[in-house]
Amino acid sequence: MSRIAVLVWLTAIMVAALGLFHVKYEVQRLEEELGLEHQSILERQEAIHILKAEWSYLNQPARLSDLARRHLGLAPMVGTQVVRLDDLPQRAVQKAEVPTPTLDAILARARNSR
Q: Whole-angstrom Cα distance, residue 1 to residue 107?
């Protein structure tokens, strides 16, 4: 009986040792994965910081006004551009608008075409 008990205890100790061995290496693998994810987060935060700096540079009002002046050809308004509402020409009469079909009408037409 004593031999069986010793054999059972040795088997239990070996299973526990193998379990601890497995857990130890699983924890090491997860720690490495966590370190890689942390590094990835830091790189992305740095990229976001750089993009924010570039965005603030690109949106400087002085730079934008210079680009608008050079490329859009805009000029300040002059007094002759302002007119009264009565001076504007009347709109031409438009044709009657075609009513937009409702969803129910579209579905009914689709059912009837089957």
A: 83
